[in-house]
Design goal:
The protein is of the alpha+beta class. The protein has helices spanning 3-8, 16-29, 46-54, 73-85, 92-105, 189-224, 236-265, 273-299, 310-320, 327-351, and strands at 115-119, 130-131, 138-145, 148-155, 160-162, 172-176, 185-187, 226-227, 230-231. It has two domains: 14-186, Acyl-CoA dehydrogenase/oxidase, N-terminal domain (Butyryl-Coa Dehydrogenase, subunit A, domain 1, Orthogonal Bundle); 188-350, Up-down Bundle (Butyryl-CoA Dehydrogenase, subunit A, domain 3), CATH 1.20.140. Helix 8 packs antiparallel against helix 9.
Length: 354
């Protein structure tokens, strides 16, 4: 591969000053870093949200003529990564990349209200847990009608909630809404499919950031911890655990960046994008198992305590990898795409956009 080809396959470089500013905001905010225990509900910090809004980060990817900052997904990925790195839980992705994007795509008005989005299933089953629903001010609800969907935005006061949380205490609430007498705005199924893909990509980015955090913390721990007169990093068994975790995290990030590059280059319309996102989600899901196990092994008992920051990464990775599709679901998507491509077209499926 020559230099030109390599450059064309490298993700766009985000302004370093913007990245530093994002990191600085969350670094200044973090207080001690100990988050809620499993099952304890987390509320996002309204003061932090206002600060992010004043810096143009709440609607980072929104159109400038509609109150946004006009940035792209690479910048959004840096913002999500910075939040994960500092253990800050806010509904940035659900608000900007999903709910507000969808409203803009339909030429519907977007104001300063905090939003999340809910897609009701076609099979008439129960609505899955909606991220941050009880904490948002409005919920954008989509429901199937024939071959298409309909959309209506509700104030949270109009909805009934069954509250719940994920492993790190982020709200995951089931909503109850009667849409039988609501006409709503028509939404083409293709746009809903794009929303599903963006949702999956959000979690892939967040899991990668959590895995990187766990690996970094593990490397720092074994380098500084002395056992039997020498650093843990000098023990071959520890080296194997660290190298395996780092390799899995790197694979997950490579798959995710490849899918993101393909998505942004084609405006989320690449022929093989579904396969690429499924591959990324499969990789991050399996990587999470290895990284979480190995990170806790090298930390020993101290890594299992609530006071240690390791769990802010490991529990987050395990929570997010199961949202917008389980690991098994994405494994099956990869397998189905490979079988459908067949032997002659399989290489083209794998190498497209790589």
């Amino acid at each position: 591969m020559n230099t030109t080809e390599l450059a064309s396959k490298t993700p766009a470089v985000v302004d370093p000053d913007l990245v530093a500013m994002m990191d600085g905001v969350f670094s200044d905010y973090r207080q001690g870093g100990v988050l809620a225990a499993a099952g304890v509900r987390v509320e996002y910090d309204r003061a932090l949200w206002q600060r992010l809004d004043s810096l143009g980060l709440v609607r980072l990817t929104g159109a400038e003529d509609n109150g946004g900052s006009g940035a792209g997904w690479y910048e959004a990925a840096e913002l999500l990564t910075a939040a994960v790195r500092h253990g800050v839980r806010v509904p940035l992705a659900e608000h900007d990349l999903l709910a507000c994007w969808l409203l803009e795509a339909l030429d519907l008005p977007v104001d300063d209200a905090v939003r999340t989005v809910c897609v009701q299933p076609r099979d008439g089953g129960a609505t899955t847990a909606v991220p941050w629903a009880g904490e948002a001010q409005r919920v954008v609800v989509l429901w199937p009608v024939g071959d298409e969907y309909r959309l209506c935005e509700f104030d949270t006061a109009e909805l009934s909630f069954t509250t719940g949380t994920n492993l790190i205490g982020e709200p995951r609430d089931v909503i109850s809404v009667d849409v039988s007498r609501i006409s709503g705005h028509p939404v083409h199924a293709e746009l809903v499919e794009r929303l599903v893909r963006k949702s999956a990509m959000v979690r892939a980015i967040q899991v990668c950031a959590a895995l990187d955090g766990a690996v970094t913390m593990s490397v720092e721990h074994v380098a500084s911890r002395v056992q039997f007169g020498r650093p843990l990093a000098k023990f071959q068994a520890i080296q194997n655990l660290i190298s395996d975790a780092a390799a899995e995290a790197a694979l997950a990030r490579a798959a995710t960046e490849s899918a993101l590059r393909s998505a942004t280059d084609t405006d989320w319309q690449s022929t093989h994008l579904g396969f690429q996102i499924a591959t990324a989600r499969s990789c991050v899901g399996h990587a999470a198992s290895v990284v979480v196990r190995n990170a806790h092994q090298v930390h020993g008992a101290i890594g299992t305590t609530h006071e240690h920051r390791l769990h802010t990464y490991t529990r987050a990775a395990l929570a997010w990898r199961s949202e917008y599709g389980s690991v098994r679901f994405w494994d099956r998507q990869v397998a189905a795409a490979a079988v459908a491509a067949g032997g002659q077209r399989l290489w083209g499926l794998i190498s497209d956009g790589s």
